[in-house]
Specification:
The protein has 268 residues and is of the alpha/beta class. The chain is 49% helix and 14% strand. Bound molecules: nicotinamide-adenine-dinucleotide (NAD). The site of nicotinamide-adenine-dinucleotide has 28 residues, from helix 1 and helix 6. Nicotinamide-adenine-dinucleotide binds next to helix 1 and helix 6. Belongs to the short-chain dehydrogenases/reductases (SDR) family.
């Protein structure tokens, strides 16, 4: 018996990176998985590469478009008969500096990253509320939504997801739907892959910033999502699980400065 036997999951942005690793992890533990992605070709390729074809489906889906989201949810129900797990994974980062960001740019990042999750949750709710053994929503946030790492619009959207998760956990707890959020730090996905290829020193520099001595892999996040989505987390809702290599655990520059100061005072 596997943790997701008989369960159905939908992963938005499941064609690449963290979404892909999550889809693979849930499928490997017995779930039927819908990969809902804007990049239809990559979604199909991912679905073809993962486990058995009758267990995985690729769906065209744009989380910024209500009709597209509704159609994806309907297709999942038609194919798999319901929905037990929703993973809100789409997030859009980047863009100009704060001074140069106009309202359209703010919306470009907030729409998929925050409102996209809202759209998906609203569309999925009837199925989640009807799930026989309880249901779970896991959103992919970011350390950017917890502390200042730059990228104000993206970070504000991720911070919004934290509060949305907490509010919905309270609202739907008694109705059998849990809401949790995973907050990753730097994860080796295609965005970073490109940068590391052009600048190999960057990978080492970033790894050195982490108490665990490396940046994360998509599978690190997939494991956390699978935990929160599973019955192992049956009494966990409204929580933020930082999967961040320890980067939010403290301030190394503060410790180094204090140590340096103490050493200077002691004349060493
Ligand atoms: N990679 C990191 O370092 C990192 C760190 C913290 C948080 N995150 C978060 O993790 C999530 C996944 O990031 P990733 O690095 O794996 O990204 P990625 O770019 O590798 O994959 C994102 C996927 O989302 C799809 N997508 C984009 N817009 C969409 C839309 N409107 N509708 C449907 N699908 C859409 C893309 O086609 C792609 O398959 C994001 O929410 C991101 O903010 C990533």
């Amino acid at each position: 018996m596997q943790r997701f036997d008989g369960r159905v999951a939908l992963v938005t942005g499941g064609a690449h990176g963290i979404g892909r690793a999550t889809a693979a992890r849930l499928a490997s533990e017995g779930a039927s998985v819908a990969i809902a992605d804007l990049d239809t070709e990559a979604a199909q390729k991912t679905a073809d590469e993962l486990t058995s074809a009758d267990q995985i489906m690729a769906l065209p889906c744009d989380v910024t478009d209500r009709e597209s989201v509704d159609a994806a949810m309907a297709a999942v129900v038609e194919r798999f008969g319901g929905l037990d797990v929703l993973v809100n994974n789409v997030g859009i980062n980047g863009g100009p500096q704060f001074e140069d960001m106009d309202e359209a740019e703010w919306y470009r990042q907030l729409d998929p990253t925050l409102y996209g999750a809202v759209r998906c949750i609203k569309a999925a709710l009837p199925m989640l509320l009807a799930a026989r053994d309880g249901a779970s929503v896991v959103s992919i946030g970011s350390v950017n939504g917890i502390a200042a790492f730059g990228n104000e619009a993206y970070s504000a959207a991720k911070a919004g997801l934290v509060n949305l998760t907490e509010n919905l956990a309270l609202r739907y707890g008694r109705h059998g739907v849990r809401f949790n959020l995973v907050a990753p730090a730097t994860i080796h996905t295609r965005h970073w892959h490109q940068q590391f290829r052009d600048d190999p020193e960057l990978l080492e520099m970033l790894g050195d910033l982490y108490p665990l001595g490396r940046i994360g892999q998509p599978e690190d996040i997939a494991a956390a999502v699978a935990y929160l989505a599973s019955d192992d987390a049956a009494w966990v809702t409204g929580t933020v699980l930082r999967v961040d290599g320890g980067i939010l655990a403290g301030a190394p520059s503060f410790l180094a400065a204090m140590r340096g100061h103490a050493e200077r005072r002691n004349g060493r």
